[in-house]
Design goal:
The complex is a heterodimer of chains A (446) and B (421). Chain A contains eleven helices and 25 strands. In chain B, helix 6 packs antiparallel against helix 8. Classes of the chains: A alpha+beta (446), B mainly alpha (421).
Chain lengths: 446, 421
């Protein structure tokens, strides 16, 4: 291979340069124009810079979740509206409200009836299923229906074990789909519905294995309460909420109805009753009277009345079962078969006595008889009404009357003054306010 | 259908369409366009939108080669003879179409920016279609001579006017940025797309000439070299945000004026023309949207009429005082009515730059391109036959710019060609 000489190699560029001198200038000029153009380019316009991908994905997910939740909420609300005609609200009568205000005067004076709870209209004939805790111890509550009217209702059956209650209201003309469903499997979402006037109060719930759980952060009105019916999203009634505020239990509607109807068929629809009204005790009252169930009232001509029991007696045993409180006494009486003999041990003036009584079916359902009154503490607020002057009159004011002091019947101001003078304060006083009676431990008025 | 199959179908369809067009005595390019419409998405959908999208590069390559050929007409000695007159015609016909369309559409209720942009698009004359007809009928004469220079100058004029109008609109629709930055951006766009494209074309032209001097003079090597540089010019122009049209024109013009190898390179390149051009026109036909004609409306009809009037009257006014026959003077404008890829290209650019106006404008442009693209070649053929510049034997798919140029007598009949020195 021939190796080119340096002379030849050098000659080529020289010739090339001569020939392309003009062209070289053109090339340089063009290159300068291009470089200058690139260098002088203005900044590019970035239109709506999009966020980086790693930020976009969570944003999309959050948006999808938000929309799904919004759709779910809309579905729940529409299902609630669909179910609302079957939901009735129970209203407390003025007497109950007055008693509550006596215990806690911070309660507002209601301009209209106060809702105690709700129930489920199970048939167009006006039969309502609810739980005993939704009635506020009111045997004849008023029901607010879908059209806002208040109709009277009466208890026709009560299941002692579950607290489920069947009421008969005056006929309610309601155009609702009376369809009940079975309790769903776990983790199914449903809605507990309460009535607040014409608007629903909807609480989404999840069915667990033996209870319902309120869906956290999803309430459309408040919390689940006993007496609230539970519906599925198609509007079928599934369950009735029972238990209490901390331990919520759902009872299947068809099952509960079957049990209550069988009670009626077996004539156990109305629980056994002795015709007693108990009062729960606490604080100084409980210390003074000791363990047992304090009798607040005795139904005239009832089994207890015939056995000789009186208001102020403390029942300590029923049918050989010890009674430590009113809560212990109730199931023993309600659970006893009507017509069987019950041995009752009670304490009167610190002496134990024994009587026998035959419980009868209570035609008043869960009337005040055998019901535990709302616990009365020491009723310090009530003390104020017992000024010395007022006590001497034994008629405190137009509404509150003193029935007895230290088991001694008060017939007038003189007898009241005599009793007070004989005994040291505090005195066990039986009062009547409106239609309600209760015991209270009262001291000297300041 | 895959792309390779669709390319094969396009070529065979083009061949059949060419023969049918000859039988019907219509320009072959019309045949290609019509067969494109038939097999395209608007017809039997043998070539889908996806195929058109993936084969768009074929059209770009073919357009680059066409403009490379046109650029080689801009030989200084040649241009000196017809140049001043052609420049005057270009300015007259372009400006008349611009003003008439702008004012007319504004009067018909279009917003001023839309009317202005449509005015610019109306100025355009399709280079490829016109050139194809000229070569098919082997046209020679003063009209053909002017037409060749006209279509090149017209496209340069359109691009520059488009730059000015978009710069003005950008300044008018000032928003957000500082005013001077906006002005700079507008002026830079105008300067860069012209000066930068020309610089790129000239630079590549000089390099091509240098390389051609060292290459073997075989048609195969010449074709590879020329095609390679055309593709580099188109691709680099796209990369640098320049005008591929300007760049390839400048490449051709540089080669014609500074090189001894221009004729050899163009002749070598012409061997690759037929399949590319056939594909180009069939694809152009397939992209025509028949449906758009239905939505033409009053504004669309006004655009078609005003553009035609502007082009014909402008050409007639521009050619005044030139040494041509009365028939050439009368019919030159009819040859300038073709409208094609540049119009669609500008519309796409408007859609990016001014999306607010694109909606009103796109329908009118697409429908009018369909009308002008079909009518344009027929009118050009009619004129060529009428003025007696069409030869009797058409030569489909066998042309090159250099070959045509060699056969066209100079208006002043100077005899020798500058490129053959």
């Amino acid at each position: 291979m021939e190796i080119p000489s340096f002379k030849r190699i050098g000659a080529v560029p020289a010739k090339l340069v001569r020939r392309t001198r003009t062209k070289g200038a053109i090339v340089v000029l063009c290159a300068v124009v291009l470089v200058a153009g690139i260098w002088l380019a203005p900044p590019r316009i970035t239109e709506n810079p999009s966020p980086p991908k790693e930020k976009v994905a969570p944003m999309i997910e959050a948006e999808v979740e938000r929309r799904a939740q919004a759709r779910l909420f809309r579905g729940l609300y529409e299902a609630g509206l669909q179910a609302l005609p079957r939901v009735v609200a129970f209203h407390l009568t003025p007497s109950v409200i007055g008693r509550m205000r006596l215990l806690d005067d911070s309660l507002p004076i209601p301009g209209r009836p106060v809702v105690s709870g709700c129930g489920l209209l199970v048939a167009a004939s006006g039969v309502v299923l609810t739980h005993v805790n939704a009635l506020g111890n009111e045997p004849r509550p008023l029901c607010m229906t879908h059209d806002g009217s208040l109709v009277p209702a009466g208890v026709v059956a009560r299941e002692a074990a579950t607290g489920l209650v069947l009421l008969q209201t005056a006929l309610i003309d309601v155009d609702a789909r009376f369809q009940d469903g079975k309790l769903p499997a776990s983790d199914d979402i449903a809605i507990a519905v309460a009535r607040r006037g014409a608007s629903p109060h909807i609480v989404p719930v999840l069915f667990g294995t033996d209870c319902v759980e309120q869906c956290a952060g999803m309430s459309l009105g408040g919390d689940v309460e006993p007496g609230m019916p539970v519906f599925d999203l198609s509007g079928s009634a599934l369950a009735m909420i029972g238990g209490n505020a901390t331990d919520v239990i759902a009872y299947g509607v068809p099952d509960a109805m079957r049990r209550l109807q069988s009670l009626i068929a077996e004539e156990h629809a109305f629980p056994s009753s002795l015709g007693l009204v108990f009062q729960a005790m606490s604080g100084a009252l409980a210390e003074r009277l000791g363990e047992g169930a304090l009798i607040n009232g005795v139904e005239p001509d009832g089994p207890a009345d015939h056995a000789g029991l009186r208001a102020g007696d403390v029942v300590t045993s029923i049918g050989s079962e010890p009674v430590r409180s009113a809560e212990d006494a109730l199931p023993l009486i309600v659970g006893a078969r009507p017509g069987t003999l019950l041995t009752i041990v009670f304490r009167r003036k610190n002496r134990d006595q024994t009587v026998e009584a035959i419980p009868q079916p209570s035609t008043l359902g869960i009337s005040r008889s055998d019901a535990s009154e709302t616990p009365l503490a020491d009723a310090p607020k009530a003390c104020d009404v017992f000024s010395a002057t007022a006590l001497s009159a034994a008629d405190v004011d137009g509404e509150t009357r003193v029935l007895s002091i230290e088991h001694a019947r008060v017939r007038g101001p003189v007898s009241a003054r005599r009793i007070i003078a004989r005994r040291q304060a505090p005195w066990l006083v039986h009062l009547q306010q409106g239609g309600e009676r209760f015991f209270a431990l009262l001291g000297e008025a300041h | 259908m895959n792309e390779i199959l669709s390319v094969g179908l396009i070529l065979l369809a083009a061949l059949v369409a060419g023969h049918v067009a000859q039988l019907l005595r219509i320009p072959e390019v019309t045949g290609y366009l019509l067969i494109g419409v038939f097999i395209g998405p608007a017809g039997f959908d043998l070539i889908s939108h996806e195929n058109l999208k993936t084969l768009a590069f074929l059209s770009e390559i073919a357009l680059g080669m066409i403009l490379f050929g046109i650029g080689s007409i801009f030989e200084v000695a040649h241009f000196r003879l017809v140049g001043p007159g052609v420049v005057r015609i270009t300015i007259w016909e372009g400006t008349a179409a611009f003003i008439l369309v702008t004012v007319g559409l504004f009067a018909l209720g279009q917003p001023m920016p839309v009317a202005l942009l449509l005015g610019v698009i109306a100025m355009e004359t399709a280079p490829a279609t016109t050139l194809m007809v000229l070569h098919e009928y082997n046209a020679r004469g003063p009209l053909t001579d002017r037409l060749l220079a006209l279509i090149a100058l017209n496209n340069m004029y359109v691009l520059m006017t488009f730059g000015v109008v978009t710069a003005a609109l950008t300044l008018a629709t000032y928003a957000g940025e500082s005013w001077w930055l906006l002005a700079y951006r507008a002026l830079y766009g105008l300067g860069w797309s012209t000066a930068g494209s020309i610089a790129l074309g000239v630079l590549l032209g000089v390099l091509l000439d240098l390389w051609a001097g060292r290459a073997r003079r075989e048609w195969g090597e010449g074709m590879i070299l020329a095609m390679g540089f055309v593709l580099v010019a188109v691709g680099a122009a796209r990369l640098l945000n320049l005008s591929p049209l300007f760049a390839t024109l400048a490449l051709g013009a540089t080669l014609a004026n500074t090189s001894h190898h221009g004729d050899y390179l163009l002749r070598s390149l012409s061997r690759a023309d037929p399949p590319l051009y056939a594909a180009f026109f069939v694809l152009a036909g397939a992209e025509l949207n028949i449906e758009s004609v239905k939505t033409l409306g009053v504004c669309g009809l006004g655009y078609v009429a005003l553009r035609s009037i502007g082009k014909i009257a402008g050409a007639r006014l521009g050619i005044r005082g030139q040494n041509v026959t009365a028939e050439v003077r009368r019919y030159l404008g009819l040859c300038l009515l073709s409208s094609s890829s540049l119009a669609i290209g500008l519309t796409i650019q408007i859609r990016h730059s001014f999306p607010v106006y694109a909606q009103a404008l796109t329908g009118i442009v697409l429908a009018s391109v369909l009308i002008f693209e079909i009518a344009g070649p027929l009118l050009t053929r009619f004129v060529l036959v009428r003025v007696g510049e069409a030869q009797t034997t058409p030569q489909p798919l066998q042309w090159s710019a250099s070959k045509t140029r060699g056969k066209i007598p100079r208006p002043a009949d100077t005899g020798t060609q500058a490129s053959e020195d």
